[in-house]
Design goal:
The chain is of the alpha+beta class. Helices cover 29% and strands 24% of the residues. It has two domains: 148 residues, no CATH class; 193 residues, no CATH class. The strands form five sheets. The chain has a seven-stranded antiparallel sheet, with no helix packed on it. A four-stranded antiparallel sheet has the order 1-2-3-4, with no helix packed on it. Strand 17 and strand 18 form a beta hairpin. The N terminus and C terminus are likely disordered.
Length: 417
């Protein structure tokens, strides 16, 4: 009987133990299930956050849809990207930057970081890429298109405005101001295109530009009594577009553009270097089509080519081609110079062989055949080789030298045009 009681007691104890173990197992499964659900929720939350990243390239600043969305956003920015946001937060919302650049206009903030159509201008503490820190703060928010619209295209939806403020270069860089849906918007116009729009007051930002430079043409200064062009950042979008669209000008002189100004007197030339048909300045020069020959389309002084000395910017040809996105536009690739074709505007980049740093840009309008120099340049080269051949009439005559321009003629405005 005692044995039976002991067996029963032991059996009850074992059952109790098994029940307790079973309960623990259930509890463990439930716990693991709860943790799994929590992990899934966190993962889902992260995916939602990821999917909520701000779209950066789905708008056109010249479209009605953009105008409505932009002007009804009552912040100084767009889609939650506002001045004061940190670089770290911007990357979380916008993804990885697509390009970096230095603003070509002084006092318009510091270093620029582009996220497709978003341009974030950081404060003056960020001057170069290595200055960017996660806690660096955005000063201005600008919006752009990948292909900047021409003014006429932009005004189809925005309309025209009389509220125009010159920001530099005698009207070639201005601010166009609009008031839509009780929101003030400024458009930055540069050399025929709208580079970006912003809710910042560009007039206020640019006041220091006007106060510290020649208001009529702040891109022209003097070096040793000779006109000097303050060349923009050649990697900037506005400079690239002005070249591609043939809207680039210096003091009102553009390729085969009508003008009644005399390049020999409107600007201060280098008398030692200039000659008939070529006006040379400190860091740029103009070649005049047909020299002192007949007018072209009633233009007294048609500029056939513009040469810019840009070595001081230290830009490599490979970086420029990538930044301008012009690999498909190449017409001739040389060992130390490349030529690119932009709808009959031909741009030659001369660069150092080893460093590949561009030291000279030549913008030319003229005929061109694939793989050869522009037609007018071929003619010039042919003429030069003819002139250097010995003369049949006088073996001692050196006709290879170009006669100096009469200094009095240069001062007097170029008779014969």
């Amino acid at each position: 009987m005692k044995k039976l009681a002991l067996v029963l007691s032991t059996s009850i104890l074992l059952v109790a133990c098994n029940n307790n173990s079973s309960e623990k197992g259930v509890s463990k499964i439930e716990s693991e299930s709860n943790q799994s659900n929590k992990d899934r929720k966190e993962s889902s939350s992260k995916q939602i956050q990821k999917s909520k990243k701000v779209k950066t390239d789905d708008f056109d600043i010249s479209s009605k849809e953009f105008i409505d969305e932009f002007t009804k956003d009552n912040t100084k920015g767009f889609r939650g990207i506002v001045p004061g946001i940190t670089y770290e937060k911007a990357k979380e919302k916008l993804g990885n930057p697509t390009s970096y650049s230095i603003d070509e206009m002084p006092n318009f903030g510091g270093f620029r970081v582009c996220f497709n159509n978003f341009i974030l201008v950081f404060d003056e503490s960020v001057k170069i890429k290595s200055d960017l820190k996660d806690d660096s703060k955005v000063k201005y928010v600008f919006l752009q298109n990948k292909n900047a619209p021409r003014q006429q295209e932009f005004e189809k939806e925005w309309g025209t405005t009389d509220d125009v403020t010159e920001l530099g270069a005698a009207g070639s860089i201005v601010s166009l101001s609009y008031d839509i849906n009780n929101t003030k918007v400024d458009a930055f116009y540069s050399h025929g295109i709208i580079e970006y729009v912003t809710k910042e007051d560009l007039k206020s930002i640019g006041e220091n530009v006007s106060n510290t430079s020649n208001k009529d043409d702040n891109n022209i200064t003097e070096v040793n009594g000779v006109s000097h062009y303050n060349t923009p950042d050649i990697l900037s979008n506005s400079f690239a577009e002005s070249i591609k669209r043939n809207t680039f000008e210096i003091a009102g002189f553009g390729l085969l553009k009508e003008t009644d100004k005399d390049p020999y007197t409107a600007l201060k030339i280098d008398y030692e270097e200039s000659r008939d048909g070529t006006a040379v300045y400190d860091n740029f020069s103009f070649e005049l089509k047909n020299g002192t020959g007949p007018k072209v389309d009633d233009n007294n002084y048609p500029v056939h080519s513009i040469t810019l000395n840009v070595e001081d910017q230290g830009v490599k040809i490979d970086d420029l081609v990538e930044q301008w996105d012009i690999s498909d536009n190449h017409a001739f690739i040389g060992g130390t110079f490349d030529i690119y074709n932009f709808d009959s505007t031909y741009v030659t980049f001369n660069y150092e062989e080893n460093s590949r740093v561009i030291y000279e840009i030549i913008i030319t309008g003229g005929n061109f055949s694939e793989g050869a120099a522009p037609g007018d340049l071929e003619s010039d080269n042919t003429q030069e080789s003819i002139e250097t051949e010995p003369s049949d009439t006088d073996d001692n005559e050196d006709v290879s030298e170009t006669p100096d321009v009469d200094e009095q003629r240069l001062k007097g405005g170029g008779a014969g045009y």
